[in-house]
Prior knowledge:
17% strand
Amino acid sequence: xxxxxxxxxxxxxxxxxxxxxxxxxxxxxxxxxxxxxxxxxxxxxxxxxxxxxxxxxxxxxxxxxxxxxxxxxxxxxxxxxxx
Length: 83
């Protein structure tokens, strides 16, 4: 289980599991709108081959997702820059 239960917590868990189990490649399934930020955060904690698979989302929610993802991305780029 990721702790905290967030993308950043998931990135840390992936990094920890990959080191412990000697993973060379990790596939992550996430929403299309979340792909860029997830790649950034996981890439900070996991340094092997990373493949993201985008799952489709309902289009009527896209404006909300764009707003929230933009705010979260800004926070990750400015404030929370580590793994």
